UniProtKB/TrEMBL annotation, chains A, B:
Annotated spans, Disordered: 175-200
Family designation: Belongs to the BPG-independent phosphoglycerate mutase family. A-PGAM subfamily.
Ranges annotated as biased composition (Basic and acidic residues): 191-200
A biological process term (GO) from this entry: glycolytic process
Presence of the UniProt keyword Transcription in the record: no
Name the record gives this protein: 2,3-bisphosphoglycerate-independent phosphoglycerate mutase
Domain Metalloenzyme: 16-387
Keyword annotations: Glycolysis
Amino acid sequence: MDLNLMRELSVKTDSKIVLLVVDGLGGLPLEPGGRTELEEASTPNLDALAARSDLGLSRPVAAGVSPGSGPGHLGLFGYDPLRFQVGRGVLSALGVGFDLQNSDLAARINFATLDDSGKISDRRAGRIPSEKGEELVALLNENLKIDGVEVFITHEKEYRAVAVFRAEGLSGELSDTDPQRVGLEPLPVKPQDDSPETRKSAQLANAFVEEANEILADQHPANTVLLRGFGMHPALPSFEEAYKLDAAAIASYPMYKGLARLAGMQLLQEGAGIAGEFETLKENWHAHDFFFLHVKPTDAAGEDGDFARKASVIEEVDAQIPGLLDLAPDAIAITGDHATPAKMKSHSWHGVPILVNSPYTLPTTDRFGERPCAGGSLGVFPAEEIMGYLMGHALKLNRFGA
Amino acid sequence: MDLNLMRELSVKTDSKIVLLVVDGLGGLPLEPGGRTELEEASTPNLDALAARSDLGLSRPVAAGVSPGSGPGHLGLFGYDPLRFQVGRGVLSALGVGFDLQNSDLAARINFATLDDSGKISDRRAGRIPSEKGEELVALLNENLKIDGVEVFITHEKEYRAVAVFRAEGLSGELSDTDPQRVGLEPLPVKPQDDSPETRKSAQLANAFVEEANEILADQHPANTVLLRGFGMHPALPSFEEAYKLDAAAIASYPMYKGLARLAGMQLLQEGAGIAGEFETLKENWHAHDFFFLHVKPTDAAGEDGDFARKASVIEEVDAQIPGLLDLAPDAIAITGDHATPAKMKSHSWHGVPILVNSPYTLPTTDRFGERPCAGGSLGVFPAEEIMGYLMGHALKLNRFGA
């Protein structure tokens, strides 16, 4: 999406937009001739909405390329995922609510197990419980002292935490220490370019690992840390800047909260489960004009290869559609950040079904599913354009040119 | 469209192309489940042609963005409408047949009414008749003298005229004087950048308004001028340069004549009404190898919210198709510059049905309409690519690469 064009044409109005992201929505038939997860699910409400909507297949990132959640969501928010690359560390820091500043360097921490020969024997430290993880994070925060940099460590979940390095002149062009396999030694952090900032940052990160190893020496199985996904805060224009939208996010996982915060969205305290998230939407309906609502379990079911469970989560979403429509949003998009076909047990590059609803649509079918979407009036198009369509359908864009 | 590629591959041949632009052709159903204007119209000739054509939906400018006529047509002619932005003043100057030079600065004039306190009380001077407008233009041309610049004023219609400033070193980066609402004072022309050219041009434009006010002082209700849409002639490669086409235009409104002249097309003196325009095509058939034929009343009916009238204009176009086919064009495209759904009473961002006919097509249906086009063999694609398809279908492009 050309965000300068959006900035130029967008106007503040009372109309309200909902972007419902059913994570990993896109699927595949298990066998030729079969149905996808979405096609197999019984979705009377989504089907009825499809009969009044524009349909299409949205394509994340590039042909054949399976996106992670970061680029998948940046695209949905209208940011070019190839231009704005966000390190996993940054996403985690934002997700735990850390107030990341522009000059901060973030990295993801896994607590892990080193054996006597200095090799990794468990990359997740025996999946220590969250209480233990919190305890170890406190221990590190108390004892770590590295010259020339402040380090903030925040616990995420179980064996996962985030480190934020605060100093002037840092860089995120650093390699991971995680060798990705057990039986190998942890790698040193290596600078990925030759700038003084990057060399300095690599030194600090290696000093951090060395000190952490000393502090954790007696904490087997969590006697070391692996660092991954180094990165700085990317300079994304916010939703307010790009679209003049006062945007709010409802998501249950840290990563998606982090992505929403990158776009300048306000995080709403979400209710439990899918129904709880829609309840949160309802409660906050009058306070914002854009809502990003993220549903996670479809993706998890797809990753587990559980076709039936994924279809059943989609049915759970379908049950919430009447309540969503009762709010009378001016424009709605329902899609995923990527496909996660149960058949592949992973994210994939396939087109993701999308439905865009407003009073101004060209419906082509009365079913929401991959195949009906392939023949829809939106065609097969880059996910980055979805925000443009939503802004148009909500009548929030001025005409371009005389 | 990559015009350098077109320039490299295009060859001069005897084959002939017709680009029939039915302005604002795209539409929407008034109610879910209903038909669009084009689908509702009885179009036996277009349907029969669709059965022998490639179909698709062409998308102007960007997702969700409703284009003005300028960017809409630049896209149809293969120019990137985001790169080549043309001020309304330039379009008007070209439309009235003014021989605009590359260093000229053009702006649109509205005659308007100033009240005793210096505020605008009518932005259209009581919609003075064209004869009065002509008289006032003559008065201005006789009496205006501004040091360092020649000014040419040409009457357009009723309260509308065009001013062209001719001097070296001008710039079009100027703001309008029209405050867009009555009850406000006219705005001064402000430079939009800090270059000497722009500051000089702002001074000249403000001097123009001051002198015009003196000359028009006794001409209530047309006792002032508002200036809008400043701009210089954009450096578009002509159809001859880009495509090696000797192009001619048949259009009844100044704006579309202006757009055609920007592309270097020769303006043909058009007959009256839609039938008259097709008659002009027939009379000039042997003199050119590309014809742009512009039909306006569909857009006007859409803007008026008159679904039935828009459908009826489409039927009028349909009646001309047999005569068009009798000329045996080698390639034909029939589309619009944008959608103007009667439901919205305005231009919109929706896909515009397009039919491309030649002996080399992949037909998918026997109906011309938005929904049949959504499933066509051209897909949903940028309007800028239409000229490429026309050149291909007319066998006017060499193979690219060995």
